[in-house]
What we know:
Blueprint: H1 5-28, H2 31-36, E1 38-47, E2 55-59, H3 61-66, E3 75-89, E4 92-104, E5 113-126, E6 129-144
Parallel strand pairs: 1-6
Antiparallel strand pairs: 1-2, 3-4, 4-5, 5-6
Amino acid sequence: MSLSLNADIEAFHQATMLLTAFATAVDAGDCDSLERMFAPDAVFDLPSLEAPKGRQVLRGRDEILARWRGERPFASRHIIGNVTVRLKNSDHMEVRSAGFGMRGPEDGGSPFLIVVADYKDDLERYGPGWRFRSRIVNSVFTWSAEKK
């Protein structure tokens, strides 16, 4: 459902800003910013890095944030692109994107995990901005090496 060209452009801009802010906050370990990006009852469904072909479904903001709290013995970088937006109404949009993520040693050096993924997001308007109602991540390619 397209509401208008201006609404579509604004939705694309807002979605891209949220996805970029999410990637930046994850890489920085900024849980305060991440907290504002999720609805209280949001769902985050992602591949389990511990169980091949397994899924990890996190329910609720607290469970989602627990994934990023605590010690991070690695550096990470996430890059998001190929964003498409379907504005369902003035308060809800569906967003699809692709992402590239890497983890490596904090002091630089070669990455030990590389993931290319597809994202399916449902966003809701919240005050002046948008936040995640649900986020589904599907790995397309994964490469890992033993940490050194």
